[in-house]
Amino acid sequence: MDFEDAASRIESRAALLRNGVTRRDISTGGVHRIARGGFVPHEAWAEAWPNERHLLQVAAFEERRRGGPVVYSHLTAAILHGLPLWGAAPARVHLSGSHHNGAVTRGAPLVSRHRCAIPDADVAAVGRLTATSLARTLADVLRTAPVATAIVMADAAMRRVAGDDSRRAYDSDAADALRGAVARRLRPGARGVCQAREVLDLADGRSESPGESVSRWRLHELGFAPPRLQVRIPGPGPGAYFVDFGLDDADVWGEYDGEVKYRVEEMRRGAALDELISAEKAREDWIRGVTGRRLVRWSTADIRTTAALRTKLAHFRVFPTPSRGLSHR
């Protein structure tokens, strides 16, 4: 879902009544109320991912906003730019500017107004909306968002500018150019700038999913050496396998398994779940056999906190080198 999709789903009370929804349905929660006068079907809200829910909030805000243009910023801008979200949807729609010339009517979603100057170079068109540029958005998010969200968005932005999925290639120069642009927008002494710099230094677009990004941050907090990412292992035929993490200081391979691991393109092409599981077992056996290394897997539940991943890895006797980490204390 993008913003235009979200905007097309917002309906006013009058439109609902014209379409046969009763006043009782509206008053008793038969439809989901996003803002005063702005509704979506209950199932649309229930099925929406957190980033999609925020787009619906932005659409409801736009529907009731009066006045001139505004500049969306922070997490709102990040979601408009298409960066993935980790965790719950933002509670507020974020705007930035030295002043705001649009009145917001009573009942609109809660809004956070950040009073600050936005240079023209830091403003970008995102569809028919105006938001902070990708570099400025990252600078704001890395300072103010929870660290797991920050690393997920930083990695995704790096992947967007530097990744080439068709060739499994990564342009480090392009990634470093974005890294530099973000760094120049981090004002010394600003709130959260230490977190922002740490996340920015660690950001790497070779992480292929939000779960891999959060995993890397947790490994960093546990004191593991920076892992090799998407490590190529020659396969039994002309192809190759790729492993998420090469944890060289622990002499193991690591892989993140999301809840939707088996809802992959192969299933959409008709492969049965048992076939996918069998193929994955053969892959894992091959990797262990040809490299002589164990392969350790973890799930989303294992990276909710650093302590959870520490516990998971400790069960398998996987620790960073003693001089670096704390996971075995």
Number of domains: 2
Give the tally of β-strands. 15
Helix content: 40-55%
Number of helices: 14
Percent of residues in β-strands: 15-25%
Distance between the termini: 45 Å
Category by helix and strand content: alpha+beta
Mean pLDDT: 88
* Biggest sheet strand line-up: 12-13-14-15
Low-confidence stretches: 101-107, 325-329
Main sheet: strands, sense, barrel: 4 strands, mixed
Short structural summary:
By secondary structure, the protein is an alpha+beta fold. It has 14 helices and 15 strands. Helix content is 43%, strand content 20%.
Task: List the keywords.
single chain; globular; 14 helices; Endonuclease, Chain A; 329 residues; disordered C terminus; four-stranded mixed sheet
Question: Which helices and strands occur, and which strands form pairs?
Answer:
Layout: H1 3-9, H2 13-18, H3 23-27, E1 31-35, E2 38-41, H4 42-47, H5 50-64, E3 65-67, E4 71-72, H6 74-80, E5 93-97, E6 102-104, E7 111-115, E8 123-126, E9 129-132, H7 134-144, H8 147-162, E10 163-164, E11 169-170, H9 172-183, H10 193-202, H11 210-222, E12 228-234, E13 240-247, E14 252-257, H12 265-268, H13 273-291, E15 294-299, H14 306-315
Parallel strand pairs: 5-7, 14-15
Antiparallel strand pairs: 1-2, 3-6, 4-5, 8-9, 10-11, 12-13, 13-14
Helix pairs in contact: 1-5, 6-7, 7-8, 7-9, 7-10, 8-9, 8-10, 8-11
Describe this structure in words.
This is Transcriptional regulator, AbiEi antitoxin, Type IV TA system. This protein has two domains: 50-202, no CATH class; 210-315, 3-Layer(aba) Sandwich (Endonuclease, Chain A). It is globular and about 65 Å long. Helices cover 43% and strands 20% of the residues. The model is unreliable at 101-107 and 325-329 (pLDDT under 50). By secondary structure, it is of the alpha+beta class. The protein has a four-stranded mixed β-sheet with strand order 12-13-14-15, sandwiched between helices. Strands 4-5-7 form a three-stranded mixed β-sheet. A two-stranded antiparallel ribbon has the order 1-2. A hairpin with a 4-residue loop joins strand 10 (163-164) and strand 11 (169-170).
